[in-house]
Amino acid sequence: MANKKVSKDQMVEMYKEMYLIRKYEERIYYLFLEGTMPGSIHQSHGQEASAVGMLYGLRDSDYMASTHRPAGHDLAKGVSLKSMMCEMFGKANGCCKGKGGAMHTGDIKVGAIPANAIVGGNIPIAAGIGLALKMQKKDDVVVCFFGDGASNEGSFHEGINGAAIWDLPVIFVCENNLYGASTPYRTVSKVQNIADRASSYGIEGYSVDGNDVLAVHEIATYAVNKARNGLGPTLIELKTYRIPGHSRSDACAYRNKDEEKQWFAKDPITSFRKTLMDLGVKEEDIISLENKIDEEIEEAVEFAIASPDPLPEDALNDVY
Amino acid sequence: MIKKITMPSGGQNTDESLIVKWHVDVGDKINRGDVLFDIETDKATLEIESFASGYLLHKEYKEGTTVKEGEVVALIGDEKDKDSLYVEVEPSENEYLSESDDYQAIMLQNQVIVEDSTDDKEKDICIKASPLARKTAQDKGFKLEEIQGEESNKVIHVKDVIKFEDEIASQIIEESYSIVKHSNMRKIIASRMNESLSTSAHFSIFTDIDMSRVIELRKKLNSELESKNIKITFNDIIIKCAAMALKDVPIVNSSFFEDHIKVWKDVNFGIAVAVDNGIVVPVVRRCQERSLSKIAELNSENIAEIKDGKLNSEKLSGGTITLSSMGMLGVEKFTSIINQPESAILSVGAIEKKPIVVGDEILIRPIMTITSTFDHRGIDGAIGAKFTCKLKRYLEDPIFLLI
Amino acid sequence: MSETTIVEALNQAIAEEMRRDESVYCLGEDISSLDGGYGGAWAVTKGLGEEFGAERIINTPISEILISGVAVGSAMVGMRPIADLQYGDFIFCMMDQLVNQAAKMKYMSGGTVEIPMVLRAPVGASTRGAQHAQSLEAFFTHVPGLKVICPSNAYDAKGLLKQAIRDNSPVICFEHKKLYGGKRKEEGALSPSSVIPDEDYVIEFGKAAVRREGEDITIVANLLMLHRAMEAAEILSKEGISCEVIDPRTLLPFDFETVFESIKKTSRLMIVHEDNYTNGWGSELSAKVAEEAIYYLDAPIKRVASYDVPIPFSPVMENYVIPNVDRIVEGARNLMQS
Q1: What residues in C contact B157, CB-CB < 8 Å?
Q2: Which residues, in sequence order, are bridge partners of residue B370?
Q3: Which residue of A has its CA nearest to C109?
Q4: So what's the ipTM on this one?
Q5: Quick one: which of A317, B97, B324, B389 has the most CB atoms within 10 Å?
Q6: For residue C191, what pLDDT band results from cuts at 50, 70 and 90?
Q7: Which phi and psi (to 5°) does residue C271 adopt?
């Protein structure tokens, strides 16, 4: 579904962001396999259209609240690749000085608040940011991502209801990738479309193909404009699918192979690349920019590995 | 690991022994075989050696306590036990059994009984003291074992440490001297001596006297008087000679007053006699007119009465001059303080054989030094010298006694 | 200068700070007195809706996650929210937002994000049963990143709350229901009113107040228990036991130094709190004294606290569970003997 308002150049930019996320996550995956990176990972490849479609074109002064699967959102919101990579290695120059880690990346200077690893925890916080923006009489907005699992949290209910009653400029984005860890969404809710829950709060809700970046961007543009104009929140459900498991050690035994095959066939990167070529973008140009991004990622990895560790005693700072 | 030292068997006739002496203190490092304490049984005194090495943690009984056989007398532990606030009890017979043979030997020799350490007594070795008390005791170098805790719960508080410190302090003071309360006699002596020195102006003249003839005379007289049970002393002869010298120099037998000197007609001779905790000075009156044997008789009577505690207090007053002799104590010469209100005192030393020059010859003679001390307020040096020379002359040639 | 109750002092502090700083606002259930609203369950925010409007005195749904989450989110981007709880016990519905979010956000972001929020929570038993009675201080003194204050009189309430509002960290202000001194009188309630100066003032956190000087026992007590300890000290003074009574005023940070200085003098420490005995804030104070000041002590530490049970409803039982003056007096007598 082509969006007339998005130019070809803009689409190329969107593709670059999506490709960056894909390659970043793949590179991280291999770094973990090598054992060079500490901790665990919750990866977002496969969901690039959601991150880029929602966030493309937002201001730095707009806010974005992410989850334990934050890399795509952060990169799309403008958090620097190097500071993300350094944080993954727990380095002193990471975006959280090594104190946050993979689940808390962010950079409030570009509107990416620290990602939240408590499922649904960021929903009332996003409402709070929306309230602040409203009280400060700004026309900035908040995009709040969460997964299908969060839709069953109390914070989902309380947060969205609060944003609704106060007409806060918040776009609630539920990336429904069908599984909360290993648990299929269909087994934990009678509501087929999470967007349907919007009606409980008296707000608009939309279910959209989350793998179609242009479709995502279209609904995002609508919801963002609405929020900027003081018309309150929107709940957007993006149906999507993560390529990897829930976390590093997840072999996805709970997923049906046919289902995977179907979804992988709808890979947002592959399909959007084809769309670009259909629109006349030369493949060699695409390959050229892809190569450039690959290099940037390698550079970031090298930079991160060469970066200094934090001082152990710096663990005692930044509490108050 | 805590090891108990128990009281060994005291022998066939008794099941208890007396702890006579501790050889070690709590906290001391003990090597196996060190003597811990001595016990006295009905038969003998035994040294009790330690079967264990380590530190003495606790003494259950003090010296002088009689303890039944088998009772725990002391506890020995390792460094860890020593340092820990509460001593942990780890009963383990195996550890005892694994001890080497010489341990067994010591065990048998001293009949030290090693028990399983589950006894209730173990609990007592944790001394309950407040942290502040503990710290204060440590700072002051006191052992908690020495400090008495609260009456009711035995807990040592800081006030108990302070109290202990005070007690120690007073003990230290007491140990450096013993207090002897003044007797009335001491009070009198003190005030008289002080008064004498502060009112009169003492000076002394020393004179060495060749006693050869006095010794010879006394020997003869005493062998003569033996039947009458009279024994003439050197003091008696000095008194007789001094009484004669006073006839020559009467002003020495006097008392000095503010505007006059009283020159006494009678020579009432006081003789200083040492008694328990003091001196008494019985007086022999009218020596100027008495025979040597009478003087001797009166003197020996006085001394006998002093010994029996029957001396009449009248005999202690009215002296006009005093003699103090330390010859019998081996003192060669000394000075005395004038017995106020008298004006002179004679200090009589021991008779010792000394070389003297007679003509151009050096002869060995029995010599006695008499120091005559005078009150310069009334008696000038020349008078004193005159008296001294007369005395020397009479003593060196007692033939004058016949005059 | 005027005689002021804690309720009035808190109200003044909020109003003055809201006038001073536009980023300060209040949110909570029933806090507005506009249109017949309560003005807060304890009337602390009474009249503020009229002055500042519904935009800054925000009535919320009965949604504690929302209240706390909104406080965190808005604080993150430049606001200074004062969140209100009707009863402190409801704080457990907020635990994620307080402990996982508010307390950790600055840290997780490497110091780039601050959460200058205040949460006010009434505590203490007042014959309402187990879910409207708890003393919650210790739960939060355990959380690095939070600050915990507990004013016991009107002067402190105003100075501490103002400091809390200006502080860049999340602060939980525990207020005692029986000390508010408002019109709503509880049985056994006190009204520790103070003469409050006209000029602006704040009270620095981590500065305890010595409420009464003494020689024999140091009593550290907060909120209602401070007042009971003062009463006990008066009784004990007639028996010749001289108590020094310390009000910590803030529990995180805690002014250990003032307590240490006091026990240097008295050598005896008693801690009194309404929070229950096991792992109450007195446990931490005891441990700290044991670690750093044990050689000042001439007797074991004595804690007088609520028994380890939920707070019962019956006044007879409630009075039994919560330390009263007699229990404090008895505790002090025992301490003098131990």
Answers
A1: 298-299
A2: B207, B348
A3: A96
A4: 0.94
A5: B324
A6: confident
A7: -120, 130
